[in-house]
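Memo to structure team: turn this sequence into structure tokens by end of day. - J.P.
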Amino acid sequence: MTRPSSRRSRGWSSRSRRASLVIGVAGLVTLLAGCAPSAVVPSPDAKLIAARRAAGIADCPQPSGEPVADGLPDLALECLGGDTTVSLAALRGPMVINLWAQWCLPCRQEAPVLAAFDAARDDVALLGINYDDPQPDWAIEFAELSGWTWPQLSDPEKTVEAPLQLPGIPISLLLNADGQVVARHAGAFSDLAELTDWVDQGLAA
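Reply from structure team:
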């Protein structure tokens, strides 16, 4: 007479274990979903920020403005080190924006020309974009050795490649006071005179 009761007891125990297992798995799935990569917000790299500042590289600008016709794309890039983001469309000139990487030989050859221009002209700002570069710490070291002190953005994923129709690097863009791109120069500048003439002609147009 006790066997039916025993079967019911064993059946209940089995169902309880299955229910507990389902609940446990559901809870685990929920926990893992909360830890998915899409929920993780990258944090600034304190070492890179410290290295950038120790190298004498200025903090990035924080412009505020609306996109303009013939201006830069409505995208935001991180400052090298990730402590701030900069809206490209809000930037205003006169400004030379130079896209470069530490692995790029023409960029290395052009480096002293940019440094000489920065020393010679206080009426035109410079802004770098460290582009497609997997070694930001090497980029900071290269910028320091080159005497670069102007702000540097970071675009390791080539975010601006399509919007700016980039053929490669180095490439320089000239921004006027209204935020319009008035000139583009693909390739390295050979000397200070070439860069100076390009800037003056572009801003006079």
